[in-house]
């Protein structure tokens, strides 16, 4: 019974493992960044998101992640500013960046609640 339970747990957990580091496998969480302004952030944002205004993304991204191959999701009010931030990050060498558009679209896509 215990062996079967362990096999079920491994079958569920192993597909979630996305990277290998030093022979130890670990789950890598994507970075989610709200690129709106401070007032918009304070009115509500996605749970677990980082806040970096779109026009400061290249200067401040290092405080959130230095992994240029890691997954980064961006969102704003309509998708326009997150598109600008995406281009800035791509120019800076970040490879896996995705614009999720609005905060509501990002919440749906990522299954995360909006918090205040």
Strand order of the largest sheet: 5-3-6-7
Oligomer: single chain
Secondary structure tally, helices: 5
Q: Tell me about the biggest sheet? A: 4 strands, parallel
* H/E series: HEEEHEEHEHEHE
Strand content: 25-35%
CATH class annotation? Alpha Beta
> What's the count of strands?
8
CATH architecture: 3-Layer(aba) Sandwich
What does this protein look like?
It is globular, with a radius of gyration of 17 Å. The longest helix has 12 residues, at 2-13. It contains 5 helices and 8 strands. It has helices at residues 2-13, 38-43, 57-60, 80-91, 103-110; strands at 19-21, 24-26, 31-34, 45-46, 50-51, 71-76, 96-102, 114-115. Strand 6 (71-76), helix 4 (80-91) and strand 7 form a beta-alpha-beta unit. Helix content is 36%, strand content 25%. The termini are far apart. It has one domain (28-115): Rhodanese-like domain (Oxidized Rhodanese, domain 1, 3-Layer(aba) Sandwich). The model is unreliable at 5-21 (pLDDT under 50). By secondary structure, the protein is of the alpha/beta class. It has a 4-stranded parallel beta sheet, with helices on both faces.
Give descriptors for this structure.
two-stranded antiparallel ribbon, 116 residues, globular, 8 strands, alpha/beta
